[in-house]
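Discussion board: Methods & Data

I've been asked by a reviewer to show the raw model output for two of the constructs in my manuscript, not just the figures. I'm not sure how much to include, so I'm pasting the format here to get opinions. Each protein appears as its amino acid sequence followed by a line of discrete structure tokens. Is this the kind of thing reviewers expect to see in a supplement, or should I convert it first? Here is construct A:
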Amino acid sequence: MESFAEGKLYAIRYEERSGYLYAYVQGREDSMEVSMAYWAEIISCCRGKNISKLLVEEDFETDNTLFDTYELIISGAELKIHDIKIAFVDRHPDQTKTNLFGENVAHNVGLWGKCFSNVKEAEEWLLS
């Protein structure tokens, strides 16, 4: 398990891979507050490194509600991240319904992202 910085409810490990940035984020419980914080941190890292392709692998035992997922995606659109191609992998298959809902909302607001069940497929799509 990654070490958690003091006061943070999640940990992120970054890897600059060939052609994209990989971010592995994990925590005990996901929530709107946690998701907003880690996505803002990851997007800030992308902006600082001029990254246009991002693969996020998430590992939280709990899931956001559909309403929180909607609000999170709308907030992402407001951050003007339309120029970042995002592949998203969740290590918990029981959260697929929420993730696919988020993918649909993202497409409806012009974001460039897709959900996957494994990193290999996500990477193939991201680099295509």
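Construct B, same format:
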Amino acid sequence: ETVASGLENPWGLAFLPDGRMLVTERPGRLRLVTADGKLSAPITGVPNVAARGQGGLLDVALDPDFAQNRMVYLSFAEPRSGGNGTSVVRGKLNERGTALENATVIFRQMPTIQSSAHFGSRLVFDRTGALFVTAGDRYGQKDEAQNPANHIGKVIRIRPEGGAPTDNPKISGWQPELWSIGHRNVQGAALHPETGQLWTAEHGARGGDEVNTPKAGKNYGWPVITYGVDYSGAKLGEGTQKAGMEQPLFYWDPSIAPSGAAFYTGAAWPAWKNSLFVGALAGQMLVRLSTSGEAVTGQERLLTNLGERIRDVRQGPDGFIYLLSDDGGKVLRVRPAG
């Protein structure tokens, strides 16, 4: 069912403690959405964004201590001299919910690239309070995903105020913010509710969309190994396996173009506990992956009749599943029939 409509390319959603939602719109607006679907005026204090192609205002996450400090984190395509890049800003949401105050950039993907694609950009706090940031390969820069001297095609892990945590991988030649390398364009990320392990959903090229569990210091292969091919049909990389590079837990071929992801822990569907839900853009559906430990044990394709590009997936405080429809501009709620 439709909760709210009239949004323009909504990208990220986060629930406030009072049940309202913060929703980003890719052109550069952040709004509050009430449970009955009312949209606020755009919240002020949001940074300027490079709103072209896949770029713009992207994900939103609340500080684990939001109830005390009201800190909000936004990822965005930042316009810069010579191009743009994925950046993360944090600021304090005022009590009225009308402004983001003292917004400060805490991370910049480097180097700056002239590109309008593959910003990655999901934000997930781990159980230590560190922040995972997925940073895409910027399309056209794929070989840089194997270069640990930069942030291109990487999973980043930073402190809430910026900078690298002391327990990040300490590997010669690696930038200190790096957690894992060899990623293409991760647009889905969530912590497993029991283990606290990060799970990601990653765009492949033509085929080869992946589900991974990025571990500290590991290499996930892009573009050296992949289960996909180039859009032209040409072979990519060296094959599907190589020593020192990790295999995905699961992959899709043909591609579904996975975006937001969330684990289910609610009571509305007890049989779905610990399932990973992944939105599909090109696939226009919601995918449920059943899991056991670090294994994907099954796939169920849902809402295939909607014809909606599903950009983000979240579990609401009511135990229902909430979705963002990319081109439809809607917040959708999924609940049991009857």
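Answer (T.O., handling editor elsewhere):
This is acceptable in a supplement if you add a one-line summary per construct. For B, something like: The first helix runs from residue 66 to 69.
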